[in-house]
Specification:
heterodimer, A: alpha+beta, Ubiquitin-like (UB roll), DNA polymerase, domain 1, 2 domains, 5 strands, globular, B: alpha+beta, Aldehyde Oxidoreductase, domain 4, 3 domains, seven-stranded mixed β-sheet, five-stranded mixed β-sheet, 19 helices, 30 strands
Chain lengths: 156, 743
């Protein structure tokens, strides 16, 4: 039994402690915005925020998350920063298949929350854990810089 | 419009039917017969189905018939209809059609075919709809249709300024005579307001919020999850497993041994573990302890294939001739210089981001298999699953979901067969099968590895007088319509060299192989454009100069029968224009580059698109190659339909190709793939992405697809740049750092 705080709500789950958060979200709670890509924390498709830190939910057991604030892609639009990123993503038409983009957006929002004005090298460094198989990297860089210029904050 | 552009359209004739929508409004149905090799194998007219509906409130809904895998087709095809309909794009909704080739014609995401196949028919559908709306307005006002104008979903009578919206006219329009789509006038391209506009992906607003739109997001009441354990060794057979031990694991509902049916493209032997949560199902696989009969295949390895292939190439005698002209022996005997080189490229996996998955439910009462499948070939999957289950095709219902990438992997529907077999064993229970990334990397249908020994003869003026290729490939007797382990027998520069001889030798294998984005071209471009760079170097010139000289004075080849009807032949004029453009864009031959940087060139023609590309690279002391800039010139016809999608495809293809050049190879040992996940199959990450400059060179040809043709030339552009920077030839992919290391 695990009690988690997800997107501001308390959720109680009857799952083993070692179940990764990803599979609790997807199969137990029906929150399928967070994506499965590799299962080993290598691709970043499953990125969520745990206490504001970009975290690979495929490798985070639910037993380790009690008392922590979990935030997912479904909640991203609740903050000015999240909305600024989402708008930039549409304005530059970032995506092709789009499957990795939930993870890209969650990593990008954690980056901008900590570093509102990153250099390209800082963007590349922060984003290199997120694979985009369609390789929309140029547009992801561009969208992050556009959102950074907006100066939006992560506070609700 | 040129004669060539027209030849791409004559073989088809769109049939249209109009009816009143339930509750009022217009339903315009279309079918597009005459496309060669329709999925049904027949080119006869099929039943009509709704492509476009216009509701009384003006809402326009267009069916996106082809699978969306990230190539932008779900946005692009409706743009063609909406343009000629003169609709307001903001009021257009797009819904995904189910798999039904009799209704929609072939539904396929592959081969970059959709653009040339649909460019005219989709516009005709829209133009016919507009004509009917005009007719309805003309009747209403008692004027002639030709005196009226349309704009953004509104008909205007310029004489008195009166207007009627498409919604107001829709029900009347359904009673108008349906015009012959072949005779409706299409817009002058200068009047386009949707085609040529940067239009964002139709599903993107959902994606940024994490809404469920991919196959793996399918959720059904009472759904359970399945994992599938298959043999690591290709060709192995199931012997036994500890099914009870796996079934005793937490959350596990059932464990079922499933006998194979057909080949690896259908269903291989395996064990399905079914649980209430996929992670629990997958975890229980570790208890199965499956015993496999590996047969003869357990001795196969990439090293073994390489040894066999090198022996074939050293023998100098291909087992069979592919093509021959002139007298190569005499040309080599009298050559001033001979260039002789062995090239090799590895097996590659597709690894789309969304792992293979499929949701299926066997409805026992109706005897229907209902499926939710992220596939590039829904029609083929539907037919093949029906065959496996002994069902008529209409008893397999396939809902096409968005796919998280394809790259050719989802042309093959093994995952659909697995899901269907599991669902059949659990009647009336929706089952979602998901593969792990390891299942994907080790259970792919790989881009075939290949080897080429190339020889070129140069005369004393440096002119290429003869070329020979000994291609070592695999025997794939089971390959269906498209065999990826082949090469065109007249591959460039065959037609432009007086003496030429191509031959091949084949090796036995059980490794499943399939098409990877720009199939055959992604490998042959590296081989031939790198070798021609060697030839150019020996001849004292450079590759673009050599290529232009080879085709000097050559005329366009006549149109020929292709995959989907008549297609334009190879046109050296288009080749010249993209080469000259890329040379100009990159300041080729004159560029002042940072110390240690160098440029390389590549040109390739595939999927009806011409691309010339230049890469700027540097090589570190440790032998690490960095690609800094890429300049790309492409000719894909008269019109870039959606510049957003077009640019994204080209830039993505270039980075995809750079990944193949720098880091990707699938290795086999003891009959099984040794790679497993993204740590040892290293897809490019953001820091690898260079600056990419793209220019389209328009030509007087119907527009063609962009999913593939930008990829092939970037690979030799990178390897040729590495030679320019280091003096070391790259004749095997991926680039070996040890070969380049200087410290």
């Amino acid at each position: 039994m695990a009690t988690l705080t997800i997107n501001g709500e308390t959720r109680t789950l009857d799952v083993p402690d070692d179940m990764p958060l990803l599979w609790a979200l997807r199969n137990e709670l029906g929150m399928v915005g967070t994506k499965f890509g590799c299962g080993m924390g290598l691709c970043g498709a499953c990125t969520v925020h745990v206490d504001g830190v970009a975290t690979r939910s495929c490798s985070a057991p639910v037993g380790s998350l009690a008392g922590k604030k979990i935030s997912t892609i479904e909640h991203l639009g609740e903050t000015p920063l999240g909305r600024a990123l989402q708008k930039a993503w549409l304005d530059v038409d970032v995506m092709q298949c789009g499957y990795c983009q939930a993870g890209q957006l969650m990593t990008a929002s954690a980056l901008l929350a900590k570093n509102p004005n990153p250099s390209q090298a800082e963007v590349d460094s922060a984003m290199q854990g997120n694979i985009c198989r369609c390789a929309c990297y140029g547009r992801i860089r561009e969208a992050i810089q556009i959102a950074a210029k907006e100066g939006a904050t992560a506070d609700v | 419009m040129s004669e060539l552009a027209e030849t791409m359209q004559v073989s088809r004739r769109t049939l249209l039917k109009a009816s009143v929508l339930a509750g009022g409004g217009l339903m315009l149905s279309a079918t597009i017969p005459g496309i060669a090799r329709a999925a049904t194998g027949s080119a006869q007219a099929a039943p009509l189905n709704a492509f476009v509906t216009i509701a009384p409130d003006g809402a326009i809904t267009i069916v996106g018939k082809n699978p969306e895998i990230g190539q932008g087709i779900k946005t692009m095809l409706p743009m063609l209809i909406a343009e000629e309909l003169d609709a307001d794009w903001d009021k257009v909704a797009i819904v995904q059609g189910d798999s039904d080739s009799r209704k929609y014609g072939p539904q396929l995401a592959g081969g970059s075919f959709a653009t040339p196949m649909n460019w005219i028919p989709m516009r005709q559908v829209g133009a016919a709809g507009r004509a009917m709306l005009l007719e309805a307005a003309a009747k209403r006002w008692g004027v002639t249709a030709s005196s009226l104008t349309t704009s953004k979903g509104v008909v205007t009578n310029p004489a008195n300024g009166k207007t009627l919206t498409y919604g107001e006219l829709a029900t009347d329009a359904a009673a108008s005579a349906v015009p012959d789509p072949g005779k409706v006038a299409l817009k002058d391209p200068k009047d386009f307001h949707i085609i040529g506009r940067k239009i964002g992906g139709i599903d993107s607003p959902k994606i940024i919020h994490g809404e469920p739109i991919y196959g793996v997001d399918t959720q059904l009441p009472g759904m359970v999850y399945a994992a599938y354990e298959r043999a690591p060794v290709f060709g192995a057979k199931y012997l036994s497993a500890n099914l009870a031990a796996a079934k005793a694991e937490p959350g596990v509902i059932d464990v079922i041994a499933i006998p194979g049916s057909g080949g690896p493209e259908q269903l291989v032997d395996g064990v399905a573990v079914i649980a209430k949560n996929w992670w629990l199902a997958n975890k229980a696989r570790s208890k199965l302890g499956v015993q496999w009969d590996n047969g003869e295949w357990a001795s196969h390895s990439t090293r073994g294939y390489d040894e066999q292939a090198r022996a074939f190439m050293a023998s100098g005698k291909p087992a069979e001739s592919l093509n021959k002209k002139g007298d190569t022996a005499a040309a080599f005997a009298s050559a001033a210089k001979v260039v002789d080189a062995e090239y090799h490229y590895p097996f590659l996996a597709h690894v789309p981001m969304e792992p293979m998955n499929c949701t299926a439910q066997w409805h026992s009462k109706t005897g229907t298999m209902e499926m939710w499948a992220p596939t590039q070939t829904p029609n083929g999957g539907q037919q093949s699953v029906a065959k496996m289950l002994g069902l008529p095709e209409d008893k397999v219902v396939v809902h096409i979901t968005r796919s998280g990438g394809g790259f050719g992997r989802r042309l093959i529907n093994d995952f659909m067969h697995q899901a269907a077999a599991i669902a059949k064993a659990k009647p009336d229970t929706p089952v979602q099968l998901i593969w792990t990334r390891e299942d994907d990397v080790r259970g792919d249908h790989y881009r075939p590895a290949g080897w080429h020994r190339l020889r070129a003869a140069l005369d004393d003026k440096g002119k290429l007088t003869a070329i020979e290729d000994h291609f070592v490939t695999f025997d794939l007797p089971g390959a269906g319509g498209f065999n990826p382990a082949t090469m065109p027998k007249d591959h460039f520069p065959y037609a432009f060299v007086p003496n030429a001889s191509y031959g091949q030798s084949k090796m036995k294998t059980a490794v499943p192989m399939g098409a990877l984005r720009a199939p055959t071209s992604n490998a042959l471009s590296f081989v031939f454009q790198s070798f021609l760079d060697e030839v150019a170097h020996e001849a004292g010139t450079d590759l673009p100069t050599l290529l232009l000289a080879l085709v000097d004075g050559a005329e366009a080849e006549p149109a020929q029968q292709g995959f989907f009807g008549k297609q334009p032949g190879f046109d050296p004029g288009r080749m010249r224009s993209v080469i000259k453009k890329a040379v100009a864009m990159s300041d080729w031959g004159h560029a002042s580059l940072p110390q240690g940087h160098a440029l390389g060139f590549g040109y390739y023609y595939s999927h009806l698109g011409h691309f010339a590309e230049v890469a700027e690279v540097s090589v570190s002391k440790a032998g690490l190659v960095t690609v800094h800039n890429v300049w790309i010139a492409g000719d894909v016809g008269s019109t870039i339909i959606n510049p957003f999608g077009a640019l994204n495809q080209v830039q993505g293809a270039a980075i995809d190709g750079i990944g193949q050049a720098l880091s990707l190879a699938v290795e086999l040992d003891k009959g099984a793939v040794t790679n497993s996940n993204f740590h040892n199959y290293a897809i490019p990450r953001m820091p690898v992405a260079p600056q990419i400059y793209v220019e389209f060179v328009p030509s007087d040809n119907a527009p063609t697809g962009l999913g593939e043709p930008a990829l092939p030339p970037v690979i030799p552009a990178v390897t040729n740049a590495v030679f320019a920077a280091t003096g070391k030839r790259i004749r095997s992919l991926p680039i070996d750092k040890k070969l380049l290391a200087t410290a």
